[in-house]
Specification:
The chain has five domains: 8-203, 3-Layer(aba) Sandwich (Rossmann fold), CATH 3.40.50; 211-339 and 365-388, 3-Layer(aba) Sandwich (Rossmann fold); 408-510, Winged helix-like DNA-binding domain superfamily/Winged helix DNA-binding domain (Arc Repressor Mutant, subunit A, Orthogonal Bundle), CATH 1.10.10.10; 522-616, HRDC domain (DNA polymerase, domain 1, Orthogonal Bundle); 627-726, ATP-dependent DNA helicase RecQ (Arc Repressor Mutant, subunit A, Orthogonal Bundle). The protein contains 35 helices and 17 strands. It has a seven-stranded parallel sheet with strand order 3-4-2-5-6-1-7, with helices on both faces. A six-stranded parallel sheet has the order 8-13-12-9-11-10, sandwiched between helices. Strands 14-17 form a two-stranded antiparallel sheet. Strand 3 (90-93), helix 5 (99-110) and strand 4 form a beta-alpha-beta unit. The longest helix is centred in the C-terminal third of the chain and has 21 residues, at 587-607. It is globular and about 95 Å long.
Length: 728
């Protein structure tokens, strides 16, 4: 098999110019060169590609590399051609080639020139290719992204299931399977499906010590992404979004704010997509905003940050995508924005799929929820997921939870309660069901299993569902419970769990974070802003608002709401123009109330010699939709709001939200003609007076105050009238 008889280390120097291997690369290469099936689990950036590229260059014949993406193939072929004086040393065979190009590939293989042939699994199944390759000398098969074989892998490809049969039809040659993300279950699937039960297995640590992991509540997410990216000025980064539309939106917002950014998604034509990828690799642009396909196999070692606008569908996906940061061992910041609403969207995508696929998908989603919401060391959580033990003390503040530790409390009794409940319910339920048992929720499933008759039913009612979800999560990470993969996450007690039940010991649990409804809950955004705000300035702004409120006889929220003041205490806006970049401050409100606030901030900045990070002032992208213009024009013509909605195929909820945004930006709107048709003068006066005296403009307290006499829609419309007349 070997034609180049020099040792691997000498070949490494000859072909790639390196003098040392990384990790177990040398042992892996020697394994495949000796004709042994070889299984490699190695994190992104660990040097997987070299493990099959170098032995292919050292061997007679052609190595067939099965790869899932055309873009990945081109990138790898270009890289190999760069280390050889022969253009035909590497080729790919896929649907993008014409007949003459295919013939050239075949000629180079027959002539013994081609050492690496990259093929998609779909191409490898074509009988014409199978017949040709059977007549060729094949050195070995390399299955890249091997997790695609497993239904439990994050990118399952049914075509990968057929590889074993096709390989046997083509040649009796060793196989090397490689993956960057594989749980124990996925590893078993790969080896079983490829018939590699006797393979040499090499498993590197999944720990990437140079990566900093952080999760933030998904609040004002585009604004937060812009601030983060601008704080990393001049550094390369990737921003991942779930949808093509969001990719375009974020890329444009970054460009408007002076960031060199381009989009990348499957909806773009191949030439533009390739050009944008090259611009990123060549550092013409700093940021690529992309759907998740971008970056697979892209050899850019100095990506300094990876941002997830939307939480990924599994920990495997998250780990692989974040693994594209800091591949050179340098700085790598991994920032994800999380809202449970994203999980609900991903769950909808599972609807209509096969039952087992839905169950697997839901289990993977629950694992990523656990990661996002945990207050434990994130590195420990990730490594535990991949079956690797890790002492969180070794994280060295390289995740947000270790850098900003949460409150701990004694949890011995709670862990004992959980373990006893799992045993009493015969170890047959998943986390959600166990939580329902503990809190005493009489769900249909609980009644079906007659678990409401258990002694443990309701034994944890003093805590809520979030508490028990978090406690079970921590019991799993600590090794007292395990999740059975075959039954999609049923909780089983471990040996350590049984020991704990016999002899409970002190356990410090971490108070978990609450990310519920972060898109809508002002409290989360308020807490986050308050922690970053200049508290001295914030108190001064509150005092100024109170003075104006008293002088004008207006509620404080009419002038500026708390989140706006908190943002002012972060951004230090000193002009009316800069004030308009603050959330909740349109030009109308800035002109009406802003001058004394800008003057106070300017004096504070000067007195305290504060250096303002003006590069972090975020500019908004102009709303290009004509909907707001359409609404304003039709309100001027006194068209009923429900007719305005119907004309555009929208509902009233949508139109009211649009009008609220219009008024919130400082534009006056008169909808008296519509309100007069639903509320008499006295009713309007009562609601108007309420908003004039209320401490908050939230609808919930208003609805409670009027004991349901008015609908939410009526209250929202009156709030629009009030804010338009008083605030603008």
């Amino acid at each position: 098999m070997i034609t180049d008889i020099i040792p691997p280390k000498a070949a490494l120097k000859k072909y790639f110019g390196f003098t040392r291997f990384k990790g177990e690369q040398e042992a892996i290469i020697e394994s495949i060169l000796s004709g042994r099936d070889t299984f490699v689990i190695m994190p992104t950036g660990g040097g997987k590609s070299l493990c099959y590229q170098l032995p292919a260059l050292m061997s007679g014949g052609t190595a067939i590399v099965v790869s899932p993406l055309i873009a990945l193939m081109k990138n790898q072929v270009d890289a190999i051609r760069a280390v050889s004086d022969k253009e035909g040393v590497a080729h790919f065979l896929n649907s993008s080639l014409n007949k003459s190009e295919i013939q050239r590939v075949k000629s180079d293989i027959s002539a013994g020139v081609t050492k690496l042939l990259y093929m998609a699994p779909e191409s490898l199944t074509k009988q014409d290719y199978i017949d040709f390759l059977r007549q060729s000398e094949i050195s070995f098969f390399a299955i890249d992204e091997a997790h695609c074989i497993s239904e439990w892998g994050h990118d399952f490809r049914p075509e990968y299931r057929r590889l074993k049969a096709i390989i046997e039809e083509i040649a009796d040659a060793p196989v090397i399977a490689l993956t960057a993300t594989a749980t124990e279950k996925v590893q078993q699937d790969i080896r079983k499906n490829l018939g590699m039960t006797d393979a040499n297995v090499f498993k590197a640590s999944f720990n990437r010590p140079n990566l900093y992991y952080e999760v933030r509540p998904k609040k004002d997410v585009i604004r937060e992404i812009i601030r983060f990216v601008k704080s990393m000025q001049g550094k390369s980064g990737i921003v991942y979004c779930l949808s093509r539309k969001k990719v375009e939106e974020v890329a444009e917002a970054l460009r408007v704010n002076g960031v060199k950014a381009l989009a990348y998604h499957a909806g773009m034509d191949a030439v533009m997509r390739g050009g944008n990828q090259d611009a990123f690799l060549n550092e013409t642009v700093d940021v690529i905003v992309a759907t998740i396909a971008f970056g697979m196999g892209i050899d850019k070692p100095d990506v300094r940050y990876v941002v997830h606008h939307d939480i990924p569908k599994s920990i495997e996906s998250y780990y692989q995508e974040t693994g594209r940061a800091g591949r050179d061992g340098g700085e790598g910041h991994c920032l994800a924005f999380y809202s449970y609403k994203d999980i609900e969207k991903l769950e909808k995508f599972l609807q209509g799929k096969h039952v087992s696929e839905m169950e697997i998908g839901r289990q993977l989603l629950q694992e990523i929820v656990s990661y996002a919401e945990t207050s434990l060391c994130r590195r420990k959580f990730i490594l535990h997921y991949f079956g690797e033990e890790f002492d969180s003390d070794q994280c060295v503040d390289m995740c947000d939870n270790c850098r900003h530790p949460k409150e701990h409390f004694e949890g011995k009794d709670e862990i004992k309660l959980i373990l006893d409940a799992v045993v009493e319910s015969k170890e047959r339920h998943k986390t959600k069901h166990m939580v329902n048992i503990l809190v005493g929720a009489e769900t249909n499933e609980v009644k079906t299993y007659k678990d409401d008759a258990l002694e443990c039913f309701g034994s944890g009612a003093e805590h809520d569902e979030k508490f028990w979800n978090a406690a079970i999560r921590q019991a799993v990470v600590r090794g007292y419970l395990s999740k059975d993969v075959e039954t999609y996450g049923v909780l089983k007690i471990t040996e350590a769990g049984n020991e704990f039940r016999k002899k409970p010991v002190s356990v410090k649990l971490v108070k978990e974070q609450d990310y519920s409804d972060v898109d809508d809950a002002e409290s989360n955004g308020r807490d986050m802003a308050r922690s970053a705000a200049d508290q001295t300035l914030y108190k001064m702004l509150e005092k100024l608002r109170a003075q104006i409120s008293s002088r004008e006889s207006l509620p404080g929220y009419v002038i500026f709401q708390d989140p706006s003041l908190q943002e002012m205490a972060i951004q230090y806006p000193t002009t009316i123009e800069e004030l308009t970049q603050i959330s909740g401050v349109g030009m109308g409100k800035a002109r009406k109330f802003g001058k004394p606030f800008a003057e106070l901030i300017a004096k504070y900045v000067e007195d305290n010699e504060i250096e303002r990070a003006q590069d972090l002032v975020v500019k908004s992208v102009v709303n290009k939709s004509g909907m707001k213009v359409h609404i304003i024009q039709n309100i001027d013509r006194k068209v009923p709001l429900d007719d305005i909605a119907g004309a555009k195929g929208k509902d009233m909820e949508y139109v009211i939200a649009e009008i609220e945004a219009i008024v919130g930006s400082g534009t006056k709107i008169n909808i008296d003609y519509y309100i007069n048709g639903m509320l008499d003068e006295d009713e309007q006066a009562d609601i108007y007076e309420y908003f004039m005296e209320a401490e908050t403009d939230e609808i919930g307290p208003a609805y409670t105050e009027f004991e349901g006499d008015f609908t939410e829609e009526q209250l929202r419309l009156m709030r629009i009238k009030f804010m338009s007349e008083v605030a603008n």
